[in-house]
Amino acid sequence: MIVVSNAGPLMALAKLNALDLLANLYGKVYTSQSVYDETVTEGLAIGADDAAELQLAYPRTLLEVVSVDIQQAPTLNLPKLIHPGELDSILLALQLQSDLLLIDDWDARQIAEANFRQLNAKTDVKGTLGIIVTAYQNRIIDLQRAIGLLKAIKVRRDIWISAELCDRVIDMVQTMSAA
Q1: Are residues 82 and 119 in the same domain?
Q2: Residues of the chain with pLDDT > 70: what percent?
Q3: What are the helix and strand counts (H, E) for the chain?
Q4: Average pLDDT over residues 54-73
Q5: What is the pTM of this model?
């Protein structure tokens, strides 16, 4: 499985000490240089703990930087302005013909999905919450850890995922466990 990630899921999982979910689910995750710069270089410059965690994940081969080939990149339909790292992540997913793009930002997800459909790419899109749910469904983590991670996201001010969405996913995971 080929997986590309944008900055958001990497930073969120690193803040939660849950990068192991990526390793257990996907083995290796590819990022663009701009995502590395955003998560590691800029993060270290401001003393972010998650940046140090991510910096360690690259040499351990969990994360690998791949250059985006702008010369070969398709022209994307961009109805809204998105962050350069998000754009590079979408382009890298297309370049690698990835199975999965990890991205949290709602607008960027919508743009990615629309462009993947238009270009007949078979890339699915998932965010941090989806990673946690998938890890639970695949029995990589138990119900207690899944709910704990979701609740931690809900209360953290440095992870920008809505508390309401976290509550909906918590309800969904609890319903799954009861079934």
Answers
A1: yes
A2: 100
A3: 10, 5
A4: 91
A5: 0.94
